[in-house]
Design a protein that fits this description.
With 142 residues, this protein is mainly β. 4% of the residues lie in helices and 42% in strands. The protein is built from one helix and nine strands. It has one helix at residues 72-76; strands at 2-9, 16-21, 32-36, 42-44, 61-66, 88-90, 103-108, 111-124, 130-138. The radius of gyration is 19 Å and the shape is extended.
């Protein structure tokens, strides 16, 4: 089992989405707002009737512009629940590189997550900078 400490995360995970849909060639001034509840269901705040206890406590809002009304799957791909963390950089030992199926303990913001490395992807940007991305899947007890 490898012990990892996260150094930082490179982006926020948005949990609210302001959707602007083009009508007659222009975007409206008031968006439709969506979020994700505790059960990972997409919620349209215009039709929401709950008391808010099942909604995210912190709002990280993203705005998106569409030519046509988006499908629920398109909305869900833009937002996630509060508990999801993306793009963590690991302080890996060059002599012990992480590989797919490695079991790891991940410590992030005071919490311990137990799981495994599910996938490894190499990405090159337009400037020729190469990055490695690892997909961590949580499993087991915290």
């Amino acid at each position: 089992m490898t012990e990892l400490n996260s150094l930082s995360h490179s982006q926020k995970n948005y949990n609210f989405l302001n959707v602007y849909v083009k009508v007659n060639g222009s975007y409206p001034t008031t968006p439709q707002t969506y979020t994700v509840d505790d059960n990972n269901n997409v919620i349209n705040l215009a039709t929401y009737t709950g008391n808010g206890s099942d909604l995210p406590t912190q709002r990280l809002v993203k705005s998106a512009f569409f030519d046509e009304t988006p499908q629920i799957s398109e909305i869900k791909s833009q937002i996630t629940k509060d508990t999801t963390v993306a793009n963590i950089y690991f302080n890996q030992n060059i002599l012990l590189p992480l590989v797919v199926n490695d079991l790891v303990n991940l410590f992030h913001q005071g919490n311990k997550y137990n799981g495994y490395i599910a996938d490894r992807v190499f990405i090159e940007n337009d400037e020729g900078l190469k990055n490695e991305r690892l997909l961590f899947i949580e499993g087991g007890s915290k």
